[in-house]
Write a structure and sequence with these properties.
Layout (H helix, E strand, L loop, with lengths): L4 H4 L10 E6 L3 H14 L1 E4 L9 H9 L10 E5 L2 E5 L6 E6 L7 H18 L3 E5 L6 E6 L4 E4 L2 H8 L6 H14 L4 H11 L13
Antiparallel strand pairs: 1-5, 1-6, 2-3, 3-4, 4-5, 6-7, 7-8
Amino acid sequence: MTRNWNDIKWIFEPDGSLIDIYVQDVTLRKWERLIDFLNTNYDLRFGEDDSNQINKEHVVKYLSDATGEIEAKTLKIYLEGINVHCYFFLSDQIEFDIDPKEINSLIDFESIEYFMISISKLLNSQVTLTGESTPEFPLLKVDFNKNINKILTIDEANKLRENKNSFLSQLSLLKTKLQMKFFPNAFKDRLLRSANEVYTSIGKDKNVW
């Protein structure tokens, strides 16, 4: 698919927030398949000891744990010069995040897009790219088996913004607050907020498109 970087780059303009990738409505079995896939196909670092393999048993136990006693571990995937992070927040929602400052060209974007397509194909699931903590508003939607690969143009986003009932109004408010606060360390802020708030999944049926 031929794309024009000038039509895409607005999504990755740095504003102090992150870009998220979501797979909604998943099961532990899909998590296991994803872990096997990542271990086999990507250079990665897992946990504080920087293991180059994800400990699948540990992750499944952590995602299934109701006591809060199992140690949380983070994952970094090295993707063609782009760092993709995963924190294993929820058993029914897979979430990655990236710093938009690392997406500076069509080649960078295509690396992320291919990553999403591969996961969609593997899990037979829809995969979306969104603003930080806004799974309801996909900016890019990929579903390999349904032959869906659509990225919003800025004009399409502006039309949705005009709808007062759309989630984009909340997205704009969030980005404004982030710009005002100018987080020096967005990754740390994400972790601190998750420790103080109840973090719940959002089903894809709640997405605005």
